[in-house]
Amino acid sequence: MRRLLIVIDMQNDFIDGSLGTKEAQAIVPAVVKKIREFDGTVLFTRDTHGENYLQTAEGKKLPVKHCIKGTKGWELQEEIEALRVEKDAAVFDKGTFGSKDLAEYISESVQSTGSIDSIVLCGLCTDICVISNALLLKAYMPEVPIAVDSACCAGVTVESHENALKAMAMCQIEIA
User: Fold this and answer.
1) DSSP state of 143
2) Which residues have CB under 8 Å from 170's CB, separation 6+?
3) Please, which residues bridge with residue 148 across strands?
4) Is 136 within 8 Å of 106 (Cβ atoms)?
5) For residues 139 and 107, is the Cβ–Cβ distance under 8 A?
6) What single string gives the DSSP state of each residue in 81-103?
7) What is the pLDDT of residues 44-74, one digit of tens each?
8) Other CB atoms within 10 Å distance of the CB of residue 102
9) What region, left, alpha or beta, does residue 46 occupy, with left being phi > 0 and alpha being psi -120 to 50 degrees?
């Protein structure tokens, strides 16, 4: 695991489902191309909620049911899931914006196998889960270069996407 690509929450509900946007739909071909051409290890996250989502702290602030485990909306987009299977890539289900399991997995890999040359993140949503995971990884591994491919990300709004990119740049995450 010298080079990592982390594909964040490229799920149907965030693309064309209950929280989908035209910007999210527009990045799918670029994300597919990036996964297909990436020379390194690819890992995936999947936002995962239960039927009680609306009773959770997140559900009270964002009262739109989404990514309910086992539903079509929870699944990775079809082409992206096919690439995940083809690459036999790990997927980390997460009930929060950032995945501690993902960060611990990568951190343990660094400790057991040596350094990681770089981590690149892409996916949805720039302003919620991409930024959360980028900052979490930076906290776990401050010396590992971390980048976000802005052309392979979309936010809740165009403005919040741009704001998240600026915030990550201020935290020494490279914006490509």
Assistant:
1) T
2) none
3) 121, 175
4) no
5) no
6) HHHHHHTT--EEEESSSS-HHHH
7) 999 999 999 999 999 999 999 999 999 999 9
8) 22
9) beta
Q: Return the structure tokens found at 103.
A: 């960060």
Place of tokens 């010396």: 143
Q: Give per-residue pLDDT as tens, 111-134.
A: 777 778 999 999 999 999 999 999
Beta bridge partners of 93: 46
| Length of the chain measured in residues | 176
150-162 residue pLDDT tens? 999 999 999 999 9
Which amino acid, 145?
A: P
Nearest to 42 by CA among 5, 87, 84: 5
Cα 29 off chain centre by: 16
